[in-house]
Automatic annotation (TrEMBL):
InterPro entries: FAD/NAD-bd_sf, Flavin-dep_Halogenase_NPB, Flavin_halogenase, Trp_halogen. This is Tryptophan 7-halogenase. It comes from the Bacteria. Signal peptide: none annotated. The lineage of its organism: Bacteria, Bacillati, Actinomycetota, Actinomycetes, Kitasatosporales. It comes from Streptomyces lannensis.
């Protein structure tokens, strides 16, 4: 059996991998993490996807244990500002659509047009975000939804594939604090931490990794090596020569500049969502943590310079940005052709990355470690396990790439070359046909990217209705059907949203109590 697992890299992916493998396989494996003290982690990556709940539950961690330690806040969705035109905003929440007479509420909304804002009319969370509500009452109970939580103290270990209902929120957290928290979690359970630089990787005659060569700790041998070295891809790309497939032709944003802005959360607006504000050559993220805001401009280097991007970001933040040091990052957009080659599996940025518009970096890590456990090799290294793993990883990333391309293609904004070019760039295979279908009928699970990539049809509805650049129409059958039930349901959403705003505490109140 595979006994010795060596993780190279101590960023979010390195410690998430070590903690998860330790939780899943326990004392049956030895996990060693080698991390450089000299080479910095990427230092961003603070908004997550609602499925991250499975990760913390699998580790047996309650929100009270890890959230205060990581300055975490709640995220009910993403607020998109200025993607249609200046001053426009809409939400893409973690909320499935209600169905009336076999049609999603968005279809009925297109037919009945009860208000200006589809997001406020069909989702509860748009209103909750605007009102800065917490998704939990002060006694800790979750606001009412179709999701049923396990009773307090009962841990249910589930993975992404068992997700049947939509969990209503994700988190924002300080990535460095999370890595530190998971370091303690993993080392308390037996993982070994070595702070050193890997200076070489020795291969055997078959081209499999035999051992790492470190600066101060000599050779470190293992059976399975996890490459968590970030954009470098030290083991998989550099040593094993696995090619990287760039997505740059379809997603041109290749750079970012980031700031960490300390703020007083009590005085400041603290919407429970990430905000993505469209700019002349990309977009700016705003991530509210407990005690500071993480913000950054993701942009295409072909359209503006790093200096212009930094200037725009500083103007966007205002006086609070003075004296703060900006972190400039070059992004490698795309994925390794295969993330698992021989006895090396890349997880995190070394495996692949798309711009963080839908906060999928950590979702990719979670998907990778879960899939790795599901495909964990035996001593024979059955190639079928590896091939099946590689397909699952590639599909998830290709699917997310496609969803992000839709963001730019469908954005009504076309006021400069950057936004106009987004409408004429080559599309990933199959997308043009899918978009044509959506013009006739709102996306269904059958007409979106066909493999698991974390997004369901409702997310496509939210984006297409919000972005406004692709004409949509209701199903013709709705003209022949009685719409009174749908009208009632649309009214129910309004009533429920209003009641929730009344009864739920603000996110700040809830988190202040937790801290
Ligand atoms: P890194 O953080 O780069 O860590 C690499 C590790 O490898 C470090 O510990 C380093 O010391 C070590 N290392 C490298 N070389 C050696 C060596 N020779 N010897 C020993 N150790 C070595 N994801 C989200 O989910 N949500 C977001 O909002 C989000 N925003 C992002 C914004 C930007 C601009 C970028 C670029 C990414 C964002 N991500 C986001 C992605 C997220 O940051 C990453 O998925 C996550 O941080 C994982 O990074 P990593 O651990 O793979 O790499």
């Amino acid at each position: 059996m595979i006994k010795n697992i060596v993780v190279v890299g101590g960023g979010t992916s390195g410690w998430m991998s070590a903690a998860y493998l330790q939780a899943a396989l326990g004392a049956n494996v030895n996990v060693t993490v080698v991390e450089s003290k000299r080479i910095q982690t990427i230092g961003v990556g603070e908004a997550t996807f609602s499925t991250v709940r499975h990760f913390f539950e699998y580790l047996g961690l309650s929100e009270h244990e890890w959230m205060p330690a990581c300055n975490a806040t709640y995220k009910l969705g993403i607020r998109f500002e200025n993607w249609r035109h200046q001053g426009h905003a809409f939400y893409h929440p973690f909320e499935r659509l209600r169905i009336v007479d076999g049609f999603p509420l968005t279809d009925w909304w297109l037919k009945q047009q009860p208000g200006e804002r589809f997001d406020h009319d069909v989702f509860l969370m748009a209103t909750m975000c605007d009102a800065q509500r917490s998704p939990r009452h002060m006694d800790g109970t979750l606001f009412e939804q179709d999701f049923v939580e396990a009773p307090a103290g009962v841990t249910e270990r589930s993975t992404l594939s068992e997700q049947k209902t939509q969990f209503p929120y994700a988190y924002h957290f300080d990535a460095a604090l999370l890595a530190r928290f998971l370091t303690k979690y993993a080392t308390d359970r037996g993982a070994r931490q070595i702070e050193d630089d890997v200076v070489d990787v020795a291969l055997d005659e078959r081209g499999w990794i035999r051992h790492l060569v470190t600066k101060e700790h000599g050779e470190i041998a293992g059976d399975l090596f996890i490459d968590c070295t970030g954009f470098r891809g030290l083991l998989l790309n550099q040593k094993l020569g696995e090619p990287f497939i760039s997505y740059q032709d379809t997603l041109p944003n290749d750079s970012a500049v980031a700031l960490r802005v300390p703020v007083d959360m009590e005085k400041r607006l603290m919407r429970p969502c990430t905000t993505a504000t469209a700019q002349d050559a990309g977009w700016i993220w705003t991530i509210p943590l407990f005690g500071r805001i993480g913000t950054g401009y993701v942009y295409a280097g072909d359209y503006i310079s790093p200096e212009e991007a930094e200037r725009t970001l500083r103007e966007f933040v205002g006086p609070e940005a003075e004296d703060l040091e900006a972190n400039h990052i070059r992004m490698r957009i795309g994925r390794s052709r295969n993330s698992w080659v021989n006895n090396c599996v890349a997880v995190g940025l070394s495996s692949g990355f798309v711009e963080p518009l839908e906060s999928t970096g950590i979702f990719f890590i979670q998907n990778a470690v879960e899939q790795l456990v599901k495909h964990f090799p035996d001593g024979d290294w059955d190639p079928g396990l590896r091939d099946s793993y590689n397909k699952a990883i590639a599909h998830a990333m290709d699917g997310v790439r496609e969803f992000l391309v839709v963001h730019y293609l469908a954005a009504a904004r076309a006021d400069n070359d950057y936004w106009r070019d987004a409408k004429t760039r080559p599309l990933p295979d199959g997308l043009a046909e899918r978009v044509e279908q959506w013009r006739s009928k709102l996306p269904t699970e059958q007409t979106i990217y066909p493999r698991y990539h974390g997004f369901e049809a409702y997310s496509y509805h939210a984006m297409l209705l919000g972005l406004g650049g692709i004409p949509l129409k209701p199903a013709p059958a709705l003209s022949l059907m009685d719409g009174s039930l749908a009208a009632k349901e649309l009214q129910t959403v309004q009533d429920q949203a209003r009641a929730l705003v009344q009864s739920l505490p603000s996110q700040y109140e809830y988190l202040a109590q937790m801290h």
